[in-house]
Design goal:
Rossmann fold; four-stranded parallel beta sheet; 633 residues; elongated; five-stranded antiparallel beta sheet; 16 helices; alpha/beta
Length: 633
């Protein structure tokens, strides 16, 4: 394919500009600002349309950037030859893409042609706009030469499979996007986020045993407080009844000091008797509880003794059976010996059989039980003995308490008798019926104290109930956290499986593509080295490539990235790489090349090599070479 001519109505600063391509190497020398880069972009836009149309700034949006400076028709025409046929392509650009017009004419007949559509660039060159910019079209602003999927497809001559390779790129991008989304190593990754959340839930769930223990302690404390509150109320009631009943006696005792002393002793005796009654009740309750435990252990011992006896009898039966069998074998051998049915070497057999018979019969008499049953039985018997001793101790304490109660009751009766023995005249002098106000005044201090203790106990019980409620709420939250943790761990496992599948899939895809493109590495590298030698006059044996057509420079046995080299060297490598890819992409009919000042960063010696390169390349390619300096012509 080659260009024949072009005409620009208005494009950027160029207006009413025409150019005829007469030679294979077409050179345009013009000062900076003339519009060389604009001319190069015009050619690309004519075949591929504008780039960056979604961007708002003129720098990134070519449609905005190259609008006619002075107004007028925005666009132009390009005449080119494909094979033996010439075409004239006309494009007029509007403010938006949908306002653009495209026309294609047969240059010989002047009639419209349908040989190509608005996607004429992809149809002519077999590559998309990005691939065109990285190979055929050299721009001062963009020296990128990374091989795209379309470039690799074109190099591999698998254009029919280009959709598969494009799908490969799309699939790899989506897989890598999914890998980044899931990554456990990125703070924004779903696995990492869920792992962090799981750590929080795990900490919440770990508090569950401690919270349950706290709740048990709190409930026991509530029970104690409830019992205390009930006891205070009962004692208050008892105090009211007792005090009301005792006030006449107290008033009598106040009138008779001797009687008062007896009344005080009687009151002290009543309190001691009440205390002894509590001790008796508590001891009896504990004894009842331990007696139940003692009976339970006894029942377990009986069951285990039966199991042990059964085990011993069964073992004895096995040994007895084995002994009898051995004895029968011994008798059989003795009969055979008597009949001379066996030879001398077998005479030891009856002896061994007899020994075995004696051993088994002896073991059958030992009544060996299962060692585990015996061990457990010994533990229970020791527990039985301990409980029996404790019961004896409790029985003694209960007996002493009962004896003390009897003694105290006798003492109390003696005091009551002594009080009654006082002379009727003395009692009558002291007896006076108290008024309701006197009774209330006398019991008020005691009732106030009971009220204070009851209020304190009620407040403490309210706090304990609130604490238990808080603990139940926290336990519910911890149990919910434990359930969510289980679910979250399943989700993490699922995401991790998906993540590993994506990683392995990307690895397999990249390996497959590498294997596919590796077949074309050597032809590409030979072409690259040929162009590099022509440009520099140096050997390119120290330059290597990989399956993605990346160039590395071998130095001291190690690969070096060209990005670390000078800008001029990078430009040389970039240009040679482009040319090598174009050579591999178009083994038949060659495309034209647009080179916008590719040697601007080269020194004078390398510029000479560059010009030799242009002249040599022009034997195969039609070249539009744009430059601003005479030294590069």
């Amino acid at each position: 394919m080659k260009l024949l001519s072009l005409h620009i109505e208005h494009f950027g600063r160029l207006a009413d500009f025409s150019y005829v391509f007469e030679d294979p190497l077409n050179t345009i020398l013009a000062e900076n600002g003339w519009g060389k880069s604009t001319l190069a972009v015009f050619l690309k836009v004519m075949f591929y349309g504008f780039d960056g149309e979604m961007k708002r700034n003129e720098e990134g949006n070519e449609r905005l950037r190259y609008r006619p400076w002075g107004g007028g028709i925005y666009g132009g025409s390009v005449t080119f030859q494909k094979g033996d046929k010439a075409y004239r392509m006309l494009r007029i650009f509007g403010a938006r893409k949908k306002e653009d017009t495209f026309h294609l004419y047969d240059e010989e007949t002047g009639l419209p042609s349908s040989d190509f559509s608005e996607q004429i660039g992809e149809e002519l060159f077999g590559i998309d706009r990005e691939s065109f910019s990285r190979t055929v079209f050299w721009s001062q602003q963009d020296h990128e030469t990374e091989a795209t999927t379309m470039i690799q497809a074109k190099i591999g001559d698998v254009t029919s499979e280009q959709d598969d390779l494009t799908s490969y790129d799309r699939a790899v991008r989506q897989l890598k996007k999914e890998i980044d989304r899931l990554s456990p190593d990125r703070a924004s990754g779903q696995i990492r986020k869920k792992q962090d959340r799981a750590a929080v839930l795990e900490a919440e769930a770990a508090r569950l045993p401690g919270l349950k223990q706290e709740l048990q302690q709190s409930e026991r404390h509530q029970k104690d407080l409830s019992d205390s509150l009930e006891e205070i109320r009962e004692r208050r009631q008892a105090y009211t009844v007792a005090s009301t009943a005792a006030i006449p006696a107290q008033m009598q005792a106040e009138a008779d000091p001797a009687l008062a002393a007896l009344q005080a002793k009687l009151s002290a005796s009543g309190e001691r008797l009440e205390m002894l009654q509590r001790i008796r009740r508590s001891t009896a309750a504990q004894g009842h509880k331990e007696r139940e435990e003692y009976l339970r252990v006894q029942r377990q011992c009986n069951r285990l003794e039966q199991d042990a006896a059964f085990s011993a009898n069964r073992a004895a039966g096995r040994y007895r059976t084995a002994g009898l069998l051995s004895l029968a074998v011994t008798i059989l051998f003795l009969i055979l010996i008597a009949l001379h049915a066996i030879s001398l070497p077998f005479l030891a057999m009856p002896v061994l059989s007899a020994v075995c018979s004696i051993y088994c019969l002896f073991r059958s008499r030992r009544n060996d039980a299962d060692p585990a049953l015996v061990s457990r039985l010994e533990e229970l018997r020791q527990e039985e003995q301990d409980l029996h001793a404790s019961l004896r101790s409790l029985s003694g304490r209960l007996g002493r308490a009962k004896q003390q109660i009897l003694e105290e009751e006798k003492r109390r009766k003696d005091l009551q008798a002594e009080i009654r023995s006082r002379t009727p005249a003395a009692r009558a002098a002291a007896i006076r019926t108290p008024s309701t106000e006197e009774i209330a005044d006398r019991i008020a201090p005691g009732l106030t104290e009971f009220d204070r203790r009851e209020e304190e106990c009620r407040k403490e019980l309210t706090d304990a109930r609130q604490q238990s409620e808080d603990l139940r709420q926290r336990i519910a939250e911890s149990e919910d956290a434990a359930e969510r943790l289980i679910k979250l761990r399943r989700e993490i496992d699922t995401l991790r499986d998906r993540y590993e599948i994506c990683v392995k899939t990307v690895g397999c895809l990249e390996q497959a593509r590498g294997s596919f493109t590796a077949r074309y590495m050597n032809p590409f590298l030979r072409s690259f080295r040929r162009h590099y030698g022509m440009l520099t006059g140096e050997s390119a044996e120290n330059l290597q490539t990989d399956a993605d057509f990346h160039i590395t420079v071998m130095s001291d046995g190690l690969p070096r990235d060209p990005s670390l080299m000078s800008e001029g060297t990078r430009d040389l490598i970039s240009l040679c790489r482009r040319m090598a890819m174009v050579d591999a992409m178009y083994p038949g009919e060659k495309p034209f090349l647009v080179l916008d000042d590719p040697f601007s960063n080269l020194d004078d010696e390398r510029v000479k090599g560059g010009l030799r390169f242009l002249r040599s390349a022009s034997y195969e390619y039609q070249i539009l070479y744009l430059t601003c300096h005479k030294s590069r012509v």
